[in-house]
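Reviewer 2 asked us to include a model.

Predict the structure of this chain.
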Amino acid sequence: MSNGKSWHDWYVEERSAGARVSDKITLFIGSWPFVYIHVVWFGFWVFYPVEPFPYGFLTMLVSLEAIILATLIMMSQNRQAERDRYRAEADLATDVAAKKEIDEIQEMLARIDREKLDKILAILKSSSSSTF
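Predicted model (structure tokens):
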């Protein structure tokens, strides 16, 4: 992931047009306006004599709507799971890169410590040999 883009930016760009539309619909059906529209619609259907009780046509419409909405919700949940996998892969790649960098830094620090110790030992040897 280069160009300053996050894993989420990449994920959003890779979605198909159908996935974007489905996500927008799913976002709307999970909102209060959706509930209000249905309350008004059902109230109109019942209180304005659109059809007589037991509302067979309304039942059929609501059943078809439920089938379509359930499908859209499942598709959105599947994409959420895919998004989670994508994020986990991005997190793993970041963790692996960070681990490599940490290992390199630890090796450099260990090398610096060894060089310092070697210099200290050399100074001690030279000072002890010159004192005898």
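The mean pLDDT is 88. The longest helix spans residues 56-131. We have added this to the supplementary material.
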